Write the structure tokens for this entry.
Amino acid sequence: MPKKPEDWLEIASPPQKARGIFKLFLGYAPGVGKTYSMLSEALRRHSRGEDVVIGVVETHGRKAIEELFCQLEIVPRRKIEYKGTIFEEMDVDAILARRPDVVLVDELAHTNIPGSKHRKRYEDVQELIAAKIDVISTLNIQHIESIAPVVRSITGIIVRETVPDWVPLTASETVMVDLTPEALQNRMKRGDVYSAEKVERSLKNFFRRGNLIALRELALRQVAEQVDLHLIQSDRTVSHRPSGAYGPPHGRGALRSPRGSRVCSEEIQSKCTSGEPAICRKPWWASRAVKGKKRSGCGGGFRALETHHASDFRTRAGSRLAEILVSLCRAPIFARVARRRCAHRNAGNGRLKQVVATAWPKTRLAEKWN
């Protein structure tokens, strides 16, 4: 069939993209190969004719990375003086002026030196993407905000540089750079990751086999959740997903705890049939003392979740929590309850099950305890 004039016009002038594409290489520990994979991807694109530059890449003295690093154009970093010392940061304005097709930005969770254009490197990345420049970046699982406390409980190491949970979710493509814990430890012993004087100490602390197994599981789970989220957005669910949640009588504690935060974030990321995530709250949490205790102030906890997860937020006051849940969430597949163990843990639970069972006979109601 002959092409129409509109078809030829579309071929000659393809539609321009509204934003750049964000590709993220996710790993579970230093040394698994995130930066090497990112540079390898960049060289493949460069060989295909794409204009690729390095915004910032940290080689950490690793020979394999340095060999790839020197094969690409590097945008000079901006020098910033801070407390008498000169630091170098990625020059966002120079990259925008250069306008490449693709820019490499290593270590997404990095905090910029005061005096930089933005406080965090992921904010630099957001500006580049808004300017229609594709960005390839790297991130370790422990630097995701809600996962950092879990990593601390596993490894005993405090993670100070984090990104909000919504940042990895903005990636158009997430690549899990995987390596077995045994292979990573062998790489450490060969001196491919750290210098010889750091190897023994690292293997006895952060890089213990048990730690690596747990971190790897967290990373795999994160990627699986992102795949689930993309499936939900395309209306192709492969598993039961929550569509509504309500907080606990002492909501602030549950929302701050790592497990409670992760549960609530899943609720927020999930979609109701109406197309909006929903959170509802019982009015006496913030308005009435419980057995002489101060008000829990869980409204602040919900606002914090709204900020960190960048979600559409809905609250509704009412005397019966179950009816509020029914009014906010239409025909859910699955409802999950995040609450704390306390003297009131069973309050209203039977009523909730009764109302949900009446409204949606096929609904499964599960409870998640902290």
Notes: The longest strand covers residues 134-140. The chain has two domains: 22-233, 245-369.
